[in-house]
Design goal:
single chain, 167 residues, alpha/beta, Rossmann fold, 5-stranded parallel beta sheet, 5 helices, 59% helix
Length: 167
């Protein structure tokens, strides 16, 4: 597959970061990654470079997935967010999905991480495509309105000229 993947990992364990990166590389991704374990580090990373996906541990000593998701939303960037957790309750997982996370993966099932990333990337591509199509439609509509206004003004000018010629 050899697909480049720019990954931001919100994690405090180097071992877990290595496991997650290794899992994605085994699935064929060429991973470049940055790691953050505080809100300030995450904000700095998001401004320093572009990322394709953010994966976040659910609970860190100084930071957690809900706050990381909030930081991502505040940035205004449309980057898929995936929660990776050793222990997360179903209600918490559902709340994170409703808040904007694309998926969650249990740490004891990291083999599902590549699928979650692939799915999140496809969703992001589809969202960008829909956004571009909406923008193109908006521009076409605006151009139509301008052309219509020009026609009305030309007709008004012709009618005014005809009236002036008649009198």
């Amino acid at each position: 597959m050899n697909v480049p993947l720019r990954l931001l990992v919100i994690e405090d364990s180097d071992r877990d970061v290595a496991l997650e990166v290794r899992e994605l590389e085994a699935a064929g991704y060429l991973v470049t990654h940055a790691v953050a374990d505080t809100a300030a580090e995450m904000k700095a990373a998001l401004t320093k470079q572009a990322f394709d996906v953010v994966i976040a541990d659910h609970a860190l000593p100084q930071f957690d997935a809900p706050r990381a998701l909030a930081v991502l939303k505040e940035s205004g960037l449309d980057i898929p967010f995936i929660v990776v957790s050793g222990a997360i309750g179903e209600e918490e997982a559902v709340a994170l999905i409703k808040a904007g996370a694309r998926d969650y993966v249990m740490k004891d099932r990291l083999s599902r991480l590549a699928y979650a990333v692939e799915h999140a990337l496809k969703d992001a591509e589809n969202r960008r495509g829909r956004k571009q199509a909406k923008e193109a439609l908006r521009l076409k509509d605006r151009n139509f309105q301008i052309i219509l206004l020009i026609i009305v003004l030309l007709l008004f000018g012709v009618i005014t000229a005809l009236v002036l010629i008649k009198y």
